[in-house]
Amino acid sequence: MIDSRDIIGLIFSFLYVFLFIGIANLLAGRGAVSPKTSRKLVHIGVSHWWLFAMFWIKSPLIASIGPAAFIILNWLSIRANAFKGMNNEESRHNYGTVYFPISLLILVLTSWYGLLPKWVAGTGILVLGWGDGLAALIGEGVASPSDKVFGWRKSMAGTMAMFLSSSLVILIMIQIFDPQVPLQIALIRSIGTGLLAAYLEVFSPFGIDNLTVPVGTVLYFYYLAPLPINVQFIGIFVLLGIAAYVAWTRHAVTTEGALAGLGLGTIIYLGSGLGGLLVLGAFFISSTIVSRIHKEQKERLGLKNIHEKGDRRDAIQVFANGGVGMASSLLYAFTGNHLFLIALLVSFAAATADTWASELGVLNCGKPRSIINLKPVEPGLSGGVSPFGFAASFIGSLIIAVLVFVVAPSQAMKALVPVLIGGFMGALFDSFLGATLQAQYRCAETGLLVERPFTGELKNKLIKGFAWMNNDMVNFLSVLMATLAASFWYASI
């Protein structure tokens, strides 16, 4: 039965939200604030609806009506540009204003039906409101290092504002609704959750931070922040954040690549400990070193004119090389089975072997030859192999393989050869896929074979392979194939 308080609460909810939208439209229409600022003011204001709703509205159905209605209204607004205070040229390219009420609806349903305390669910919404709102406002107003992440400008000042405001919101909510938690413990929980919220905000593309931030924040805060893993997360996240920043400043990775590496490294550490992090570090450091060897000679070979991407790793490259290892690390965390530690080693042995073969193989005396028909191919084209490249890939695999004595010493003698050969085979798989399925194009400008679909604004003609099979896909599949094959080998011994 619906209580009269629910009806009053529903009416007030719509009046409250439309009041903020109206104010934002008025300010934006008069030029008092930028469209982006007005949108963030709506963000901050509307997030406080939760504090009213959790005490006033009892029915899950009534509490869901507002968020469900604004999913539809905001979608229509984007299509028709109805609420100028909420939409601008940027926001019309994503559905961030739709994801916000979707988050509200998800958290309303989970908390009103008792799966989560209402105040905990509300913490995620307030973090989104204040954290994301202040991140945008301070990021625009304070000069700091910045770059585009998935096409959207992000700044260090904005990210710090997101972290600090999120942590403060969480700390205040704990003090109000869970006062028996000691201040020191509450602070540690707030910092860990704030770090995650800031990371999700900066690394979520296309406006989905309006979904990932509140939901991710609530899940972490409720399930993981009270556990000892939270302290480990804070420590490793800060250390890897410093390392990622250094790699970014030295142009080893793009901004997206640095953020991807930060997330991947954190997950690998939480899944497999320092051993897993050592393996990741050995891959990244050794690969960065070999990429700098005889850099001038590589530039003279014109490799940048062939390859789709430069020598700075982006997010897709990070996950193409490390995604299998990250999944293996998570599987080890959940199962405790050493098989997945070996799979982690094999995956990075394959990635290292391929990187070493690619970076050093082009320095071979004479042209490399196709792995399929042994005909000479241009240096840098996928599918080419050489004696020097074979040696480099074997050494690269060996660097990772010997770490089995550190990562899984009890399995070392059994796993050493499968990891070593598995890594080497990964480089061979990469060359085979590169020679058979990887996309190759005829350059519209020079007429030469390249692996780039475009040269500047000119579209190159696909003459071999599949357009979706680029170098990143080849890297991922070769690592996956090598990991599966060597893991089955290890398990059968």
Can you describe this structure?
- Helix 2 runs antiparallel to helix 6 (118-141), helix 6 (118-141) packs across helix 9 and helix 10 (229-249) crosses helix 11.
- The radius of gyration is 26 Å and the shape is globular.
- With 493 residues, the protein is mainly alpha-helical.
- A hairpin with a 2-residue loop joins strand 7 and strand 8.
- It has helices spanning 4-29, 35-47, 49-56, 60-80, 96-112, 118-141, 156-177, 183-203, 209-224, 229-249, 255-292, 295-300, 303-306, 315-335, 338-361, 387-401, 404-407, 412-436, 471-492; strands at 146-149, 152-155, 369-370, 384-385, 440-442, 449-450, 454-455, 458-459, 461-464.
- Helix content is 71%, strand content 5%.
- It is built from 19 helices and nine strands.
- It folds into two domains: 4-222, no CATH class; 236-492, no CATH class.
- Mean pLDDT is 89; it is low at 88-92.
Name the descriptors.
mainly alpha; 19 helices; 71% helix
Brief overview:
With 493 residues, the chain is mostly helical. It contains 19 helices and 9 strands.
Strand content: 5-15%
Structural class: mainly alpha
According to DSSP, the number of beta strands is 9
Q: What is the number of domains?
A: 2
Q: What does the radius of gyration come to?
A: 26 Å
